[in-house]
Amino acid sequence: MFPENPSMICCRCGEHYSIDHSSFDVIKSHSRFECPSCKYEVTEHGSIKAFFNFYPRLVKSENELNKSGIYIINYTIGELMKFGKYWLLKQQLEFQCSSCNHNWLIEFDPDTVEYKNKPKSFSCPNCSNSPASKITKEFFMSLNQVHDSMVNFVNAQWDLFTPIGFVPPIKKIQHKIYRNEYKIN
Q1: Could you tell me if residue 49 is inside a domain?
Q2: Residue 161's domain spans which residues?
Q3: Residue 148, domain member (yes or no)
Q4: Which of 74, 75, 123, 64 shows the shortest CA–CA distance to 97?
Q5: Which helix (H) or strand (E) holds 141?
Q6: What is the pTM of this model?
């Protein structure tokens, strides 16, 4: 579900770009990255470090979750107070069990998601298939950290849309002050 190289959408020009995992250490050390098209910088120091520290852990823990027979197959995306910022908070995550093909939903709420604190409670509600506690805890803790840090990015939006097959609403993501300078069709 989550690709090895995260994609961002520039809030100035609307460019959709991937950040290669090989550049994560440089990004963390400089606490910045920029849109390759218009050079709009993202400089939220702590949030950048957290995002690029935890994103590889999220990808790895999702792979481990898959190996244990639990797959995240979909999620819903919500808009933060009509500001053109999109997130997973209070949205649904859909999982599938490979043992019985049962799908189920949970609500994503980083403050109350019980699975990072009580990982043994995460299992298929139909057949009780569950990943190891360490995998569950790592997945939900990493998702929480990546999500929380991404919300603080002012000049870029983490592309949550493409992994689930949606076209990003680039016009809504673009900051209004740049709409005349950077036209988006």
Answers
A1: yes
A2: 7-178
A3: yes
A4: 123
A5: helix 133-151
A6: 0.92
Flag whether 92 is in a domain: yes
Q: How many structural domains does the chain have?
A: 1
Burial group, residue 131, by CB count within 10 angstroms (0-12, 13-18, 19+): buried
> What is the residue type of 113?
V
Alpha carbons 163 and 87: distance in angstroms, whole number: 14
- Whole-angstrom Cα distance, residue 108 to residue 134? 19
Q: How would you write the pLDDT of the chain (185 residues) with one tens digit per residue?
A: 899 999 999 999 999 999 999 999 999 999 999 999 999 999 988 899 999 999 999 999 999 999 999 999 999 998 876 677 888 878 899 999 999 999 999 988 866 567 888 888 999 999 999 999 999 999 999 999 999 899 889 899 999 999 998 999 999 999 999 999 999 87
In a domain, 52, yes or no: yes
Residue 133: both structure tokens together: 């506690």
Distance of alpha carbon 155 from alpha carbon 144, whole angstroms: 20
Amino acid sitting at position 68: S
